[in-house]
Amino acid sequence: MLLVLGGAFVWSLNYRTQYYAITPGLAQPVGPLIKVSGHPHAGTRRTILLTDVYLTQLTAFQWLLAELHPVHEELLNGSQFNGPSVPTSELEAQGYLEMYESQESAKVAAMRALHLHVAGTGAGVSVYSLTQRVLAGDPLRVADRIVAVGGRRVTGFCGLLHALGHVTFGRPISMRVEHADTSSGLLVYGPPTTVSVPSTEVKGVPRTLPCTAVEGVSAVEVPQLGAVLWPSMSWRFPFAVSINTADIGGPSAGLAMTLGVLDALSKVSITGDLHVAATGTISPGGGVGDVGGVAEKTIAVENAGATVFLVPEEEYLVARRAASGGLKVIAVRNLSQAIAAIVRLGGADPVPITDPARSTSRP
User: Fold this and answer.
1) What share of the chain is helix, strand, coil (3-state, %, to 5)?
2) DSSP per-residue codes, 205-227
């Protein structure tokens, strides 16, 4: 009997379940992560915090302990956050793709808020998830960017659907793909390479969707390719801004990064003496979207000494319940509301730093 119990205990220490624990992560200043080149900018400020959570796949023993004695953690079945379409092995790449797109959106939103000109063009479609096939040596992986199909350039969904209308499903499809490299903890695209991607004819599913059916949609499933794809943009910024978020995945730091870029490009600190933490996705137009793990993030920002926590409207009650009382939680729908809330509490509107090289002298 003891031998059986001992074997069961050893098994529980090593068997990984499909359950994950979300626990409080770190709340760190976003200022030191931001680098500006080719434009005057403020010195590093440390009053705006981004926050993350730790995501841990649990062994059977860890799952049992978490069920019996939960402490500041949320348990999720893997399908709750990655769905049936994203294998666990691809979850990390998906997170880096979300962070990459979030960084780009944060820079666009911040610069446009300062009335700087930013232009964007379609750069292809990125693989958000693989649904029907994940094969060893598969030429297509999560976070890769498709830029051509069958010799036809792809800049977005319309280009993709037009190109797919000229291929024969059931046969390999020649594509030009920019492979995503995440070995550095960041997403970096390589040069386009030609690959042969398996495809299949799916009964009852149209060969292609009308282009008008996907306009304004963030992601589209293409069953014949066994993939969910979303559009990728290439932005032309007036100067270079980089954000070093190595080993952090997901889109939830979007609002914090946007405020950090605004602060770096402002003559005055937009937060003043406040220590402001923020969570929420950001769109290029400045919209703030819902995120997960807000209860755990609230604990992290309190531990870091933040006095204000900006959260998406959908998560306001969650954050309020998790806060101990000394943290002021504010719900926002967009960047303008976030700035206005900071100003009401003693901060300041951003004041653009003039680029001397672009200013003109007058007599």
Assistant:
1) 30, 30, 40
2) S-SS--GGGTTT-S-EEEGGGTE
Handedness of CA 22, 24, 29, 33 (dihedral sign): negative
Taking a C-beta distance cutoff of 8 angstroms, is the pair 230, 125 a contact?
yes
Pair 335, 247 in one domain? yes
pTM of the predicted protein model: 0.86
The boundaries of the domain holding residue 54 are 16-118+237-349
What is residue 164's three-state secondary structure?
A: helix
3-state secondary structure of 134: coil
pLDDT tens string 248-286: 989 999 999 999 999 999 999 999 989 999 999 999 999
At which of 174, 209, 235 does a domain end? 235
pLDDT tens digits along 291-314:
988 999 999 999 999 999 999 999
Mean of per-residue pLDDT scores for the chain: 85
Q: How far apart are CA 30 and CA 253, in angstroms?
A: 9
How much of the chain exceeds pLDDT 90, in percent?
56
> What is the DSSP track for 211-278?
GGGTTT-S-EEEGGGTEEEEEEEEEE-SSEEEE--TT--SSTTHHHHHHHHHHHTBSS-SSTT--EEE
Does residue 360 lie in a domain region? no
C-alpha 35: how far from chain center: 19
Would you say 155 and 121 are in contact if contact means Cβ atoms under 8 Å apart?
Answer: yes
- Report how many domains make up the chain: 2
CB 251 within 8 A of CB 281: yes
Question: Quick count: other Cβ atoms within 10 Å of Cβ 37?
Answer: 9
Element (H, E) at 89: helix 88-113
| Domain boundary residue, one of 209, 235, 261 | 235
Residue 361 confidence (pLDDT)? 33
Tokens 């923020």 label which residue?
A: 278
**Domain match, 164 and 30 both:** no
C-alpha–C-alpha distance, residues 96 and 186, integer Å: 6
Whether 244 contacts 33, CB under 8 Å? yes
In the three-class reduction of DSSP (H, G, I as helix; E, B as strand; rest coil), residue 100 is classed as helix
